[in-house]
Amino acid sequence: xxxxxxxxxxxxxxxxxxxxxxxxxxxxxxxxxxxxxxxxxxxxxxxxxxxxxxxxxxxxxxxxxxxxxxxxxxxxxxxxxxxxxxxxxxxxxxxxxxxxxxxxxxxxxxxxxxxxxxxxxxxxxxxxxxxxxxxxxxxxxxxxxxxxxxxxxxxxxxxxxxxxxxxxxxxxxxxxxxxxxxxxxxxxxxxxxxxxxxxxxxxxxxxxxxxxxxxxxxxxxxxx
Length: 224
Description:
Layout: H1 2-21, H2 25-31, H3 35-59, H4 78-102, H5 105-112, H6 118-122, H7 141-144, E1 149-155, H8 158-166, H9 171-178, E2 181-190, E3 195-203, H10 206-223
Antiparallel strand pairs: 1-2, 2-3
C-alpha cells in the first residue's frame, strides 16, 4: 500500500544519503550537546527522505491506501510532539524549496554542509548565508548564594522559541513572534530545591525583539 511504499522509500533514501554524506555526523552533534545544530541538521536529513519518498509516490502511484496505527500522541507533552514533527514537516518544506529553486542537487549540498540553525530550515532563503550570533550568559551561581550550581545550558533557536510560545499562544501569534531570531541561549542554576533561569536572545531588528517580548509576556500571563 501507499504507506508502506512511502516508508520504504523514506528509509532507503536515508541509506543512500548515509552512504554519500555520512549521517553519523548527527551523533557527533548530540554527543557535544549541540541541540540547535542537531535539530537544524535533522531537518534536512528527514526532509530529504520525505521529499524523495513523496517523489516515489508521485511517479509510481499505488491505488491501495493503507492506514496509520494509533500514535498515542495524546499522552505525549505538546512541546515534544511539535519538536518531533518538525523535521518531517518543516524539514520537507525546506528540502522541497531547495529542490524547487536549484534542483535536487541543492538537497545534496545541504546534506554535505548541514544547516546550522533551525531558522535556516524554517526560512530556506536564509540558508546557508545567514548565521546566528553567539550569545553568552555569565555564571550567576555565586550571586545567588552558597549551594547554587549550574544545572543546564542550551542554545535556543527559532524552532525552540516558536514551540515554547505555541504552548499557550496560537501559531499565528507564535510563529511571527519567533521569526527575526538571530541567536539565543538559556542557562539554569539550582540549589537542590529552587531553580533560576536566564534566557538571553538577540534579534534582527528592534521591532522583532519587541514582538517577541510582547508575545512572551502574553505567554506568561496565560500560563500562570
